[in-house]
Amino acid sequence: MNWAPQGFWLFRVMAFVLLVWSASGAWKLAGLSSEPLTLDLGTLPDGDFSRANDINSRGQIVGESSTAITSNHAFLFTDGVMIDLGVLPGVSNPFAGSSANAINDRGQVVGYSSASNNGPVHAFLFSDGLMRDLGTLGGVFTFGDSVAVDISEAGHVAGYASEPGSLTSHAFLFDGSQMHDLGILPGGRSSYARAINSSGQIVGYADTPSGNQHAFLFSEGVMRDLGTLPGHTDSFATSINESGVVVGYSVGPNERRAFQFSGGVMMDLGNTELGGVTGTAFNYLQAVNGAGIGAGWSQTREDAVGQIHAFRFIPTPVFIPVVLSALAQTGGALFNSEMILANRGSRPAAIRFTYTSAIGAGTGSTSSATYLGAGQQRVISNTIGYLRGQGLPIPNVGNQVGTLSIGFYGLSSASDAVAVIRTTAGVEGGQAGLAYSGISPSAALVGPTYLTGLRQNEADRSNVAFQNVGQGDAGNITLRLTVFSGSAANPVSRTLPDEILAPGGFRQITGILSYDGLSLDQGYVRIERVSGTAPYYAYAVINDQKSADGSFIPPVLESSLVGRTRLTLPAVVETNSYSTELIVTNWSPVRKSLKCTFQSEAIQTAGSKVEFNIEATPGEQLILPDLIQRLRDVGVAGVPKGPSYAGAMFAEVSSGDITGLSLSARTSAASASGAGRFGLFYPAVPQGMASANSTWVFGLQQDFNNRSNLALVNTGETDESTDVFRIELFDGSSGKRIDAIETNVKARGFLQLSSIFSFYSPTPQNGYARITRLGGNNPFIAFGIVNDGGAPGQRTGDGAFLSSFP
Predict the structure, then answer these.
(1) Residues 6+ apart with CB under 8 A from 34
(2) What tens digit of pLDDT does each residue of 762-794 get?
């Protein structure tokens, strides 16, 4: 969509953050901060294959590796060394083999091994340097005479073993002294154990009289049939936690759905993802310990020649401050979070999710990984539903709100990962909402921050939310919020009661300007961490009281502007319908004077620009509605009513630096029904923080409901040179490049390419762009816009602002 009265696109703040692994704060994995994200464990001497199957809390990894004579042996990887566990005592055949399946935190290992020179396979327990034969149930052959699959912290072992005189297997429990047959379901023939908890409860699957297989729970000496989901024929239990909650999947015609079984009830958690990773290179995440470190296997190269080796995977963590499926507090609109995941690297990634519920239920981590191929971008329309389908116990009724931690595994660089949330509500004619980025360790907050531009009146209300970004045992933090009126005539400040948050915790204060006895029509908030070591995050939302639209306000770090003197606001707009509101917040103790320049091709002056000054006293916040009309009102020439204006604004302090000063804008228009407005908030980019050479814009979409634009701003920070750009467009589904465009933008100029994927390639439904500066000397700002409506004039026209990714 062009900048025209017929349909102006709207912004949403979606600040993609460089996902850099950090050794600071709660994100550090002890002893691993300098280790590669993916560590090839190699093989046993002269082997050419290895595979990791499990990892414990100490980071010890077990699996199997080929040896010099091609047989596989169980291994234990500990303290940087792969140790051959060999085979059971008394076996001398050099071709005998073994494999390790699980390890507990005591370092006890279980699996299976050749038990004699002629090939029987027995379950083993490796402890204190010795491999012990756990025996059998008396049968031979089938899938192995006996196989151990899991071990509890008490040293009890679960597995399955062949029955004498038949070709069937039964699940077993080894209690430290002998192997017990767990039996079968009534009328069935076989059973197979998959997991055991510290209470000795065992889950797996077993035959039924019909020949189908059902998940079972063995507890207090009884094997219980857990059944299936309605309309399904088979089910399989894959894990059980210390509270006895069982997770697995149920199979029906043409589908597989995750389930959770607890309290005697099997809960449908939604569709599960069956697909893997396409292409020649791959990563397979087999197990993850409590610290988030993973183990599995991968190709050693990024082509088909690469061998399969065991790998340790350190996650690239991304924290999402909120995902939800919930009704609005006023108006009854249903808000839903869409998730965009992208992998711009050359290797596929395994992805694991940890959800912390704030409203509703469902806290937990996914037990298995999903996968995202190299160069791929995936748009997940319903994040809460997707997490439910991946096995998280999130109810499918009621409001669900929480934070989300995402671990990307198998990346060669932490900067290859992207996660973005777009939260919208259905409104008359389409969708409206806002968007925000995942937070990397380097972007999480430690020092004081500000949230600006808040207001509370008949048209708008403002909420403030904050989160503990710490993971695992990072501990609680205490945050202190101080609200300021921003009024020079009536300065008010109020420190609110301290807020305590556990790791992953979320808290929102609705209508903060009227909270705790306040009664302010506008203001801003300072947030500081006063205890704890984990980082935090905070944001605000301005909600339209009638349209259900919202504007996302990112935090401004108090210390981030030191030494900088200039700011670039990406856009100031006026059309028949749309106008830009300017917000200037001065929380510093000194007066701030800004010299501002607005440049647009529609301005009727030499150089197509106008200049004006803004003064802000200490503690003052100025909200200037309809900025271009305000310029006319004070006598600024060159901006007559009638033309459509769109361009960037540049501001420079008259003395000192911009420390303590925030510049931002909110652009809005009346809704088609006349009930409220659609608007959004976006911050200025400080000097030195724009892109210099190359950048990426992810999250672009083109389909029946969405279209995407791409825009460039030449900041003119260095000189008067014109920047020359190459724009490469990629299909998110395949990761393949579609086209390349070359264009240029003069100093302090603005360029938008509307409906870019529709014009250059009509087929992709999601994509991204790489922008490279080929000529010129000026830094630049690149951003995308996803609009509601497949073509101009369709649906609401509301949109999301996608800033560039370094």
Answers:
(1) 23
(2) 677 899 999 999 999 999 999 888 888 888 878
Q: SS3 for 796?
A: coil
Let me know the angle formed at the C-alpha of 327 by 264 and 426, rounded to the nearest 5 degrees.
120
CB 651 within 8 A of CB 716: no
Can you tell me the distance from the alpha carbon of 274 to that of 348, in angstroms, rounded to the nearest whole number? Answer: 16
Taking a C-beta distance cutoff of 8 angstroms, is the pair 50, 43 a contact?
Answer: yes
**Is 449 within 8 Å of 538 (Cβ atoms)?**
yes
Name the nearest CA neighbour of 663 among 599, 711, 575, 593: 593
| β 377-380/334-343 pair status | antiparallel
For residue 522, is it left (φ>0), alpha (ψ between -120 and 50) or beta? Answer: beta
At 613-659, the pLDDT tens digits run 999 999 999 999 999 999 999 999 999 999 999 999 999 999 999 99
Alpha-carbon distance 176 to 170, whole Å? 18
Q: Are 170 and 191 in contact (CB under 8 A)?
A: yes
- The answer to whether the CB of 342 falls within 8 A of the CB of 731 is no
Amino acid at 588: S
Nearest to 237 by CA among 262, 268, 204: 204
- In angstroms, rounded to a whole number, what is the distance separating the alpha carbons of residues 89 and 83? 17
Return phi, psi of residue 756, to 5°. Answer: -65, -40
Query: How does strand 213-219 pair with strand 202-207?
Result: antiparallel
* This prediction's pTM: 0.88
**DSSP-derived secondary structure for 117-131:** TT--EEEEEEETTEE
Query: Phi/psi zone of residue 511: left (φ > 0), alpha (ψ -120 to 50 degrees), beta?
Result: left
The helix (H) or strand (E) run that includes residue 759 is helix 756-760
Cβ atoms 240, 203 nearer than 8 A: yes
Q: Name every residue whose Cβ is closer than 8 Å to that of residue 160 and which is 6 or more positions away in sequence.
A: 143, 146, 147, 149, 169, 170, 171, 172, 191, 192, 193, 204
CA angle, 160 then 111 then 79, to 5°: 155
Contact at 8 Å (CB) between 465 and 507?
yes
Amino acid at 689: M
What residues does 13 pair with on adjacent strands?
none
Instruction: Match 């597995």 to its residue by tokens.
Output: 159
CA distances from 332 to 328, 428, 434, 545, 567 (A): 5, 13, 17, 11, 39
104 three-class SS? coil
What does the alpha-carbon distance between residue 719 and residue 708 come to, in Å, rounded to a whole number? 31
